[in-house]
Every structure is written in structure tokens, then in C-alpha cells.
Amino acid sequence: MNREDAAAFVAAAGPATRLLGLDLGTRTIGLALSDAGRRIASPLETIKRVKFTPDAARLVEVAGRHAIGGLVIGLPLNMDGSEGPRAQSTRAFVRNLKPILPLPVLLWDERLSTAAVTRTLLEADASRARRGDLVDKLAAAYILQGCLDVLADMAWEDPAPE
């Protein structure tokens, strides 16, 4: 993500709309929701993946229910910054989703997001079952919060003209 991509995303999403964060996994999609002021990301839910069409229909329903202005989707880059099969799969998902859910999309580097969330849950002594229930939506919140923090820094550095 670069500043131009982020600025274009914010402009396309419009003011005072919520953002939906997604952590795409092979079996689940973790969802997180921002507040309208785009300051705080909260875990929302975990969708059990079935096939693309029902998964996309669920995302359309969630986006409509929460008046979503844009999607922040975790991009699973390799540690060296290169894109592997999972990143290519994420890009394909986004390409297929855009005609069905025509919202602006910002792909966000998600390296180590699941590891960070899992570590936090282990430190909180969460059971294996509880971790399984929480990890995907918490990873989505972690991804979305990282994006919100950068967007807030950009707004602070580049205030709107008066």
C-alpha cells in the first residue's frame, strides 16, 4: 500500500462511512468493522467458507446492513514482500467480488496478523476451541486497525484545506 492508493481509497469510500476488514482464509473469512469515524476496528464475525457465490452473498448482506463504504482486505505477502499463491488467491477473490459488491477495496499487508492474534490469545490463556472461534475475526480487526491507524496519520499530516 502506498499513500496514493490509500488517498484514492479514502476518497472513493466517502466521508463518515464504516469500513469492513476481511481476513480471507481457505476455510473462513474473518470480518471486522470500523466505527463511522474510522478510529476503532471491532471484530464482527467469522464466515465459514462454502463456495464463492454464497460467501459473496453474505458479504453483500453484511455490507448493506452496516452501511459499508469500503473494504480493507488482508493481502498475505511472503516475509520478503513477494506475492505467493495465497496473495494471488486473494487478488482473484477481489476481482470476482468487485462486480457483485462494487465498493472501493484497499489491499493491506497482513504479514504476521494471525500470529500476533494467536500469541495474544495464548497469553490470555484462551482454550484451543475459544482461539479457533476468535482468531479469524480478531485477525480481521488487527488488519483493519493497522489500516485505520495509517489513515489517521495521513489525515493528521495532510489536513484538509480550509
Describe it.
The structure is a single chain. The protein has helices at residues 3-13, 52-65, 85-97, 113-123, 128-157; strands at 18-24, 28-34, 41-48, 68-75, 105-109. The protein is built from 5 helices and 5 strands. The chain has one domain (3-157): 2-Layer Sandwich (Nucleotidyltransferase, domain 5). Helix 4 (113-123) crosses helix 5. The chain is globular and about 40 Å long. The chain starts with a helix and ends in a 5-residue tail after the last helix. Strand 4 (68-75), helix 3 (85-97) and strand 5 form a beta-alpha-beta unit. The mean pLDDT is 87. It is of the alpha/beta class.
Low-confidence stretches: none
Q: Rg, please?
A: 15 Å
Query: What is the name of the CATH architecture?
Result: 2-Layer Sandwich
What's the total count of β strands?
A: 5
Enumerate the strands of the largest sheet in spatial order, edge to edge or round the barrel. 3-2-1-4-5
**Backbone shape:** globular
Named CATH topology:
Nucleotidyltransferase, domain 5
How far apart lie the N and C ends? Answer: 28 Å
In DSSP terms, counting alpha (H) and pi (I) runs of 4 or more, how many helices?
5
Order of helices and strands: HEEEHEHEHH
Assigned CATH class: Alpha Beta
> What is the typical, i.e. mean, pLDDT?
87
Largest sheet: 5 strands, mixed
Portion in helices: 40-55%
**Count of all domains:** 1
What structural class do you assign from the helix and strand content? alpha/beta
